[in-house]
Target: Protein translocase subunit SecY
Amino acid sequence: MKNFITTLQHIWKIKDLRNRILYTLAMIGVYRLGSTIVLPGVVPSVLASFASNKAHSNDLLGLINIFTGGAFNNAAIFALGIMPYITASIIIQLLGFAVPYFQRLQQKEGESGRKKINQMTRLLTVAITLVQGGAYLTYVKSIGAISPNIPVSLFWFSSIIILSSGTVLAMWLGERITDKGIGNGISMIIMIGIIARLPQAIIFEFQAQLNQGGMLTFVLELAGFFIVTMLCIMVIQGVRRIPIQFAKRMVGRGNANIPQSGARDYIPLKLNAAGVMPIIFAQAIMFLPMTVAQYFMGNNAGAQTGGLLRSLNDPFSTATAILSFLLVVVFTYVYTALLVNPQQYSEYLKRQNAFIPGIKPGKDTADFIDTITTRVTLPGALFLGVITILPKLAHAAGINQGFAVFFGGTSLLILVGVVLDTLAQVESHLLMRKYDGLVKSGKLKGRSGSGMQIGANM
Model:
């Protein structure tokens, strides 16, 4: 405890770090305030009544509400949160793998290309927000949450503008945090939305176990949550280091062979190179049957088919768990193959006059990296698949669904990843000022890791 207080004192002494942390907290406060301001013309009591309906508490909309920190169920100005921006970023990133023009922007045009991509992402975000805003207002209207005293046309026009402005403002807040605050702003906005629901979920679970006299069970649940979190940290930071060596070269007119700077390095192949993207892609694929399920729920003729689709609409059902596990494993391999290009690694090493000891340059190097990547990806893919279905297993074990969601899936991975990245930045500020780091031994690493970064990040 004493060391913790000392570390906080060191953080407060560094003016630049202190200002960045305070600035980040201020931007987060603005975002959380916007998550409580309801759209004009919406009746909050109707929304609260619908959200408390158990029949709708564990569907896809409940998961979206978690990512927006409750703003979705509140019909707030930040109801769509930062998710349209994330969708736009994913689309632009996928275009970078498939379209040569976007490949040039990402890999060859440097800072000017990055600015063009950012501008395209912002414009695409606005377009996606307009579409999702219309769908969201349709959802609000379907539950009867629009006041009858306001003209429908005026409500739609004003609300779509407000929702779009809210998403753009949330995007701007994230960019300000990245520039002047601490951590990645967009990831921080998502994390704050998720973590805002965590205390309420823990308190609800505590009260439920207290009423049932199962305090030991509650302690075991917290212990299980801690263990799962530690496993996520291990996987996020886990890398397979491929050693590389730089060839010696003559310097000046002397006879001495002086090694190139950084003569020994390594290629870090991450155990989970795909991050949370496979889970996001799997959830996107699940949108289709869930939408169809909503259609069949009120259709007696399609009752049999609707029964299967309704099970897919429940994130805690067995059918959803099996399908999600398979999709995540497949998408992990697909996305890793897009990110890690063995041929690009081989060419980069050749340009840098470097090689892997015992492996011939060229095709042999590419084949070697491809083999190692395939082997490393298997445990990472299986782990992501298990993490995806852990909420289902936790719910089956008797944990309430609000708390079970945090036992795995995108929520836990985002929480762990963003916290690690932020703490890594804080530690870098401490070490630059000759202070001790946040850990006694070694160095805290974020998701980016260390070593020679080759491939998608070049």
Observations:
- Residues 54-58, 254-262, 297-305, 449-458 have pLDDT under 50 and may be disordered.
- The chain has two domains: 13-196, 198-458.
